[in-house]
User: Which sequence fits this backbone?
């Protein structure tokens, strides 16, 4: 296959993963090729179960689409609260921390309300608001457009924003965890941000409730083994036992702790 054709198809796949769906017409205009050429590209890409063709566009299959933020926030409240309390115990007053997007990081932020003198660098507006009542805290946000209804900010400017800071802790959520430990997201920009904040922090903390194990998402980033601390509410099914055994010294199971 010609290199130009391969690169175009890879770019189309990345765009669909980023946006969820793109019309054939928009792709033809973007890459300055005919509609028929784009249709052939789409036919090839849709041979993979991750994408499908529907009503003149290419889109992610339903199992790879994210659920609404408010729905995720309301799911497994007890488990996420336990994760939040366990994570908060690792963070002392006066710490500087990155907080990523996601509903579980919001639960950690809510558990940090008793802390004082925190410097919080985040693109997660819900986490920022949870910590804004303590006047001794310093909260730093990026500029840009708020993504609704998730109430967060993404984009290349956000990556540059996080690159200007260093922190004691990088507090990260995740969309899904594969059986081999791969950390999955719905957007490649989310992967890049997590990698950036972990690189710029002394300690990385992954917070994930049990529903994230085996959950599918299209964008692959780093691995659970790369994290300094992993905090979960309870253990997932036996498929993931070998994975967790390998990180046992860095694993904290929040529910049932004394």
Assistant:
């Amino acid at each position: 296959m010609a290199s130009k054709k391969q690169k175009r198809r890879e770019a189309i796949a990345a765009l669909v993963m980023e946006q969820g769906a793109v019309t054939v017409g928009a792709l033809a205009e973007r890459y300055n090729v005919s509609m028929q050429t784009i249709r052939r590209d789409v036919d090839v890409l849709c041979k993979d179960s991750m994408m499908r063709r529907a009503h003149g566009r290419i889109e992610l299959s339903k199992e790879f689409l994210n659920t609404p933020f408010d729905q995720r926030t309301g799911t497994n409240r007890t488990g996420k609260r336990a994760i939040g309390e366990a994570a908060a115990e690792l963070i002392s007053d006066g710490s500087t921390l990155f907080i990523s997007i996601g509903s579980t990081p919001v639960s950690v932020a809510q558990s940090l309300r008793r802390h004082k003198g925190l410097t919080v660098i985040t693109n997660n507006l819900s986490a920022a608001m949870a910590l804004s009542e303590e006047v001794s805290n310093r909260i730093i946000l990026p500029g840009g457009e708020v993504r609704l209804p998730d109430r967060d900010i993404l984009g290349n400017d956000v990556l540059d924003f996080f690159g200007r800071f260093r922190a004691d802790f990088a507090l990260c959520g995740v969309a899904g965890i594969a059986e081999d430990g791969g950390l999955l997201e719905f957007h490649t920009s989310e992967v890049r941000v997590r990698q950036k904040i972990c690189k710029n922090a002394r300690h990385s903390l992954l917070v994930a409730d049990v529903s994230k194990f085996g959950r599918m998402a299209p964008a692959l980033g780093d691995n659970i083994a790369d994290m300094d601390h992993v905090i979960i509410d309870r253990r997932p099914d036996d498929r993931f036992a070998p994975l967790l055994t390998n990180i046992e010294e860095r694993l904290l199971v929040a529910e049932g702790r004394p």
About this structure: The radius of gyration is 20 Å. DSSP finds ten helices and 15 strands in the chain. The mean pLDDT is 89.
